[in-house]
Write a structure and sequence with these properties.
Strand content: 25-35%
Distance between the termini: 20 Å
Largest sheet: 5 strands, mixed
Number of domains: 3
Order of helices and strands: EHHEEHHHEEEEHEHEEEEHEEHEEEEHH
Length: 403
């Protein structure tokens, strides 16, 4: 059975992005802290705790994720060390794959900046325990939300410098800029003197997002605001928009009008003739329902399903061909699956099969032989009509399921 929709998330990085901002925004979007903590316990890591607090910035409520680590837990690791930790964990496959991919992107950027091989990259800030929790936690939170597609806004690029393990570096940090350049992600210049996009934040979105640009069209279910450690005095959140893209319908919808009349004094012989006239006049369908009317008289409820443009014509026809003095009209709609015609061959002639193709496999295959074709073959062959139906169905199945 195919999915009804795709869950997506949009990273609106108007205030920047870092690992803790991503974690906070995902928690603010609806991920339960206890579920995320339980997921991260699958990593064989100690010496840290993950907490969350509600804060207010610029009059907007958001969530700040806080990773607290012991001093002796700040170990600098190589990529292979981090990959080994993730691989040996009990995390779900998608979380392992995404986390490893983000760290690999980060290592490749660091290697390019320092002109060394990826194996020699010695992570500093990004190899610390809190960064492992930020990256793996973000991938785990996306998994808990069931996210299938990730989009991202252009990234803000600030000017200034920042103190790092290698000394004072320009902003955006070299590794951040390398990640952005490798992905050719769009940037927006900001004349602010502090770091907006960290290497961890850049690695997350340049690795996981399928595209960068304006907000795509989708149905928004919730919005999350994630705060970083810097409070510049305004609502400098990472904003996440979480929702879904409805799956394209495998059927069409058409407007129609239901015309009804209750009749208790019409010669029953006329109803067959009336049905043929109504169908020929352009109705979608017509049917009769036995009812009990006032004074317990048996009657018939006539129901005609009409295209909107045929209502007046059909009303006049019903008034002229029946004894009713009044009609009811009700707006309605019908959903129609696509229909196609296949032909199967027998020694007595061809039989058309009406069927409903559905490449998404959302609905079971529906098919039915045409009555008039089956009747002609039955009369020509002398076989019972029910056997001709079975023959036509079998021939269709053999052809359809062998394609």
């Amino acid at each position: 059975m195919s999915k009804k929709s795709e869950k997506i998330i949009y990273f609106d990085c108007y205030g920047g992005i870092s690992g803790d901002m991503a974690l906070g925004a995902l928690l603010d979007c609806g991920v339960r802290l206890s579920d995320l903590q339980e997921m991260l316990r699958k990593l064989d890591l100690t010496g840290y705790s993950l907490e969350a607090e509600n804060i207010m910035r610029g009059g907007i409520s958001g969530t700040r994720a806080i990773v607290r680590t012991e001093k002796d837990a700040k170990v600098h690791r190589h990529l292979k060390d981090i990959e080994a930790i993730i691989k040996a964990s009990g995390l779900p496959g998608p979380v392992k794959n995404n986390s490893t991919a983000v760290f690999k992107s980060l290592a490749e950027a660091e290697a390019a900046v320092h002109n060394i091989t990826i194996e020699k990259v010695h992570f500093h800030e990004v190899g610390a325990l809190d960064a492992i929790i930020d990256i793996t936690g973000t991938c785990a939170a996306l998994y808990l939300l069931g996210i299938e597609r990730i989009f991202c806004s252009p990234l803000p690029a600030s000017r200034g410098t920042i103190e790092a393990a290698h000394g004072r570096l320009p902003l955006p940090a070299p590794a951040t800029l390398e990640l952005i350049a490798r992905r050719q992600a769009p940037v927006e210049g900001k004349e602010w003197g502090y770091e907006l996009v960290t290497p961890t934040g850049a690695a997350l979105v340049t690795t996981l997002a399928e595209s960068f640009g304006p907000l795509p069209a989708f149905n928004i279910s919730s919005v999350g605001y994630g705060a970083g450690s810097i409070d510049p005095g305004y609502a400098n959140y990472l904003r996440l928009l979480y929702g879904f893209i409805p799956k394209e319908k495998s059927f069409s919808e058409e407007e129609l009008v239901a015309i009804e009349a209750n009749i208790d004094d019409l010669n029953p012989e006329i109803y067959g003739y009336l049905m043929e006239k109504i169908i020929c006049a352009g109705a979608f369908d017509v049917y009769f329902t036995p009812i009990q009317m006032k004074k317990n008289r048996p009657g018939v409820q006539l129901t005609v399903l009409s295209p909107p443009e045929k209502v007046h014509t059909l009303q006049e026809l019903i008034f002229s061909e029946t004894t009713t003095l009044g009609l009811r009209t009700t707006p309605a709609a019908k959903a129609v699956r696509q229909r196609e015609i296949a032909t199967v061959s027998t020694q007595w002639g061809e039989i058309r099969i009406k069927y409903t193709p559905d490449p998404t496999r959302e609905f079971p295959l529906q098919y039915a032989p045409e009555y008039e074709d089956c009747r002609a073959v039955a009369e020509k062959s002398g076989a019972p009509l029910k056997d001709v139906y079975r023959l036509a169905e079998r021939l269709f199945q053999e052809r359809h399921f062998s394609d």
